Amino acid sequence: MNLPLRKRIEEVCKDCGIEEEIIIQFMKEEWIHPIDPEHNMFDDEDMARISLIEDLREEFGINDEAIPVILHLIDQLNDLHRKLSPKTGGFT
Amino acid sequence: MEDPYKVLGVSKNATLAEIKKAYRSFAKKHHPDLNPGNKEAEAKFKAVSHAFDLIGTEESKAKFDRGETDDQQRHAYEEAMKGQRARQKSYYNTQQDTGRYSDQFSEAFDTEGLFDQLFGGRGSGRTRHANHQAGEDQLYQLEVDFKEAALGTTKVITLPTGKRLEVKIPAGIEEGKKLKFKGLGGAAHGKGAAGDAYVQISIKPSEIFRRDGQDIHSEIPVSFYEALLGAEIPVPTLDGQILMKIPSGASTGSKLRLKNKGIVAGELRGNQIVTIKVVMPKNVDIAFKDEILTLSQKYPYDPRIPT
């Protein structure tokens, strides 16, 4: 069984070391879409994406206008990577 | 432990700004999302992140320079250097099998797939599938104390739906174990069955105890006198403090067993292994030293000669 683990926003703040307001901002900007938006529950993917956005802003000095562009490119790259992976019958 | 200054390629006298600059430059180069699938880059990124954790702030740097870094942090660092511990899953890793984010992206260009997903395949009667969809299974996490996991307990959690759930945690439960609650997951659509809720147990590490199968290990500091003369000292166990006899002549590393003080396993129970750590007095004044010198001359012994 490989279910995504769901966490509350307070737990996500603790695990990612990020303040709640920042995560809410990411949601408002529609950079993240929590797995359960109705109850504000997040999974591993959401948390990794939050950490990635925080790395881009804090460590790489990327401004907020460029964030969605980079996320889009990264998603495109990941999608392509998955399609080409031998596991999914793509190229080796 | 590999020197975090070396890992970041800076000198011991580097300023915080220099350390941060070095860290950022490495992080940019080795970030796992910029090097998808490159294990070497991922390991390197973890190593520089931990090195930065150790010396990245004034407080942590001063602590490290004094050799006072927390054992836990040091352990995490060493594990990261061995490439065994994931600090957190990288975003790339979450997108490899069923990534929601990159899937959404993919669907925007795959109209046929989108059509299938919405209507359960092309052809007649397709909407019937969509009307009777089973609820999805949901996974939540519950953190329990080391002692609660060892001895068992009952916890009440509130699901996001507001429903309160009584979680009976069996004694001796292991990290990561999932408990199933049938029908308490996502609601079904139409006549489908409701999904199940799973609660995954995560055990808060104890500062005193460490688990090894059904046994637990702990360390007890004893004075030089207690080690030499033998003593009866209070020792923390899962059931509270008990008095334990230290035999005369105990050394650092000597192990004493407390029977049936370990993890509960059905009718049985493991043991607690207590390791002695002889601790010398912090301040040794001259008069004390003189006394010890007299004693050492009177009763000499050499621990490097095997007996």
Describe this structure in words.
The complex is a heterodimer of chains A (92) and B (307). By secondary structure, chain A is mainly α. Chain A is 55% helix and 7% strand. Chain A contains four helices and two strands. Chain A has helices spanning 9-16, 20-28, 44-59, 67-84; strands at residues 5-8, 41-42. Chain A has a two-stranded antiparallel sheet with strand order 1-2. In chain A, 29% of the residues are buried. In chain B, the strands form five sheets. Chain B has a four-stranded mixed sheet with strand order 6-7-13-10. Mean pLDDT of chain B is 84; it is low at 111-129. Chain B is α+β, with helices and mostly antiparallel strands. The longest helix of chain B has 17 residues, at 39-55. Chain B has helices at 4-7, 16-30, 39-55, 58-65, 71-81, 91-94, 100-107, 111-119, 126-131, 146-151, 224-229, 286-298, and strands at 138-144, 153-158, 164-169, 178-181, 197-203, 210-212, 215-223, 231-237, 240-246, 255-258, 264-265, 268-269, 272-279. Chain B is built from twelve helices and 13 strands. Chain B starts with a helix and ends in a 9-residue tail after the last helix.
Fold blueprint:
The complex is a heterodimer of chains A (92) and B (307).
Chain A: E1 5-8, H1 9-16, H2 20-28, E2 41-42, H3 44-59, H4 67-84
Chain B: H1 4-7, H2 16-30, H3 39-55, H4 58-65, H5 71-81, H6 91-94, H7 100-107, H8 111-119, H9 126-131, E1 138-144, H10 146-151, E2 153-158, E3 164-169, E4 178-181, E5 197-203, E6 210-212, E7 215-223, H11 224-229, E8 231-237, E9 240-246, E10 255-258, E11 264-265, E12 268-269, E13 272-279, H12 286-298
Parallel strand pairs in B: 1-5, 7-13
Antiparallel strand pairs in B: 2-3, 4-5, 6-7, 8-9, 10-13, 11-12
